[in-house]
Amino acid sequence: MQDDNNWFAKFKHGLINLNDEFLDGRPSTAVNNKNMDSVRRMIATDRHVTYYDIRESLGKNMSKIQSILQKQLCAKKLRSRWNPHNLIEAKKTDRVT
Fold first, then answer.
1. Using an 8 Å Cβ cutoff, are 83 and 70 in contact?
2. What domain of life (predicted)?
3. What are the residues whose beta carbons fall under 8 Å from the beta carbon of 16, sequence distance 6 or more?
4. What is the dihedral of CA 60, 61, 66, 71, to 10 degrees?
5. What is the pLDDT of residue 72?
6. Degrees (nearest 5) of the Cα angle 85, 88, 90?
7. Around Cβ 10, how many Cβ atoms within 10 Å?
8. pLDDT in tens, 30-87
């Protein structure tokens, strides 16, 4: 194995670069404001909406829908309803005490 490809040898000699390299590729077009607003409206209209209903409406795959719901909108499925996962300060205090 060449020294250039051996990260351990580089690290051992103090030649470590922690910067991410730019990766070529197509940016995600499924997670955008239009789709997030559509999902937000669907949840506001019917909190029992399913992944499959959202997929049928948007025509996107499940991983993108899951990303929109959980990472972008911070929504969690609780007892078959979508709930925003934002606790207000009073609720946080009640949980601790």
1. no
2. Eukaryota
3. 7, 10
4. -60
5. 82
6. 140
7. 14
8. 788 898 899 889 988 888 888 888 889 988 888 888 888 888 888 877 666 666 666 5
Whether residue 1 has pLDDT greater than 50:
no
Q: Where are the domains of the chain?
A: 29-96
Which residues are CB-neighbours of 67 under 8 A, at least 6 positions away? 30, 31
pLDDT score, position 28: 64
Task: Count the residues in the chain.
Answer: 97
- Cβ–Cβ < 8 Å for 67, 29: no
User: pTM surpassing 0.85?
Assistant: no
Alpha carbons 27 and 63: distance in angstroms, whole number:
15
Determine the Cα–Cα distance for residues 72 and 58; give it in Å rounded to an integer: 16
DSSP secondary structure code for residue 78 in this structure: E
CB 45: neighbour CB atoms within 10 A? 8
